[in-house]
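User: Okay, second chain of the day. Same drill as before: sequence in, structure tokens out.
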Amino acid sequence: MTSLLPTNESPGFFGAAPCAGRADSTHQVENACGFTASMPIAAPLRIAALSIDFPVVQAALSGYSDWPMRVIARRLGAGYTLCEVLLDEFILNVTKGRKARRFIRVGDEERPSGAQLMGAEPEQFAPAAMKLVEAGFDAIDINFGCPVRKVLGRCRGGYLLSRPQTALEIVARVRDAVPPAIPVTVKMRRGMDDSAESRDKFYAIFDGAFALGVAAITVHGRTVAQRYVGPSSWQFLREVKQHAGTRVVLGSGDLFTPQDCLDMMARTGVDGVTVARGAIGNPWIFRQARALAAGLPLPPPPSLSEQRAVIEEHYGLAEEIYSPVHCLGSMKKFGIKYSRLHPHSEQVRDAFVAARSPTEWRGVLERWYGAV
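Assistant: Same drill. Structure tokens below.
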């Protein structure tokens, strides 16, 4: 299919956010020794063998970043995408039917694309990771960051930040199992809480994972205890990147605008950023970030006709993977998010929720988004 971001309209990938009408290709970052150095903003990102042309990427989003969402994000400028978090035991037991195609589908158009694994038992991670490699994913990301209570109660996700030995055993098993050319990465939060013990455990996992061969680590600036409440600590991300040196660190947390993405890289020195909630229903954030990084003006918000075109394209991809009969249910949650950009967001949201058939869904687009 034709990309929604034509090659001849794509901005360059080097540069900084505009400042007083002038684009600069570097920003000043103070290193751990107190010296300042010019570093490029939005330089291409390398994660081991993966070459990522733009360092603003789509995060793994449970219940959202399925194949259709990832393809749309790539077409609108995301440099890299991660599939929704997958349980190791699910991957080991999944059938070869429609459910398997839904969760582990990866296509050439979205490459590079990574798969994120979560679980509790170290011995299940390696065979699950191999299944994802066989499915075609280009990297394996290990989730040590999910703060959802149900996940924590089952000793998964963020819970493992309290168990460095178990976390590092998982990393070692995955790294030993998958081919050397496949990067293994890790997603973390800044700790279980703000205690000194939690901080020590964070760095034990962080340094230990790199020592075991991890190619990059994404750090979310909130603690597990915070969940999604309160600000993400960009100061902590800055400290982590100074500690990491040349090791690849991506930042996460409070990225809701394209300027947020560039600001995080400029203020913290991280090598890239992963956009999570800020990308749901707003894939244009990636195209906008590319423009700012090239020193161009911020593109205007997508028109209603542009929004309709993307929503229709997203729906078509969902039909392909879920079937015309079953895709409507999966698309309603996206319709809710897409509606936030509409001038009559609450009415459009309610209309998407009320749709009971593909015909009614198209009727929402006809009424509220007009003809393309």
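Residues 304-322 form the longest helix (19 residues).

User: Thanks, on to the next one.
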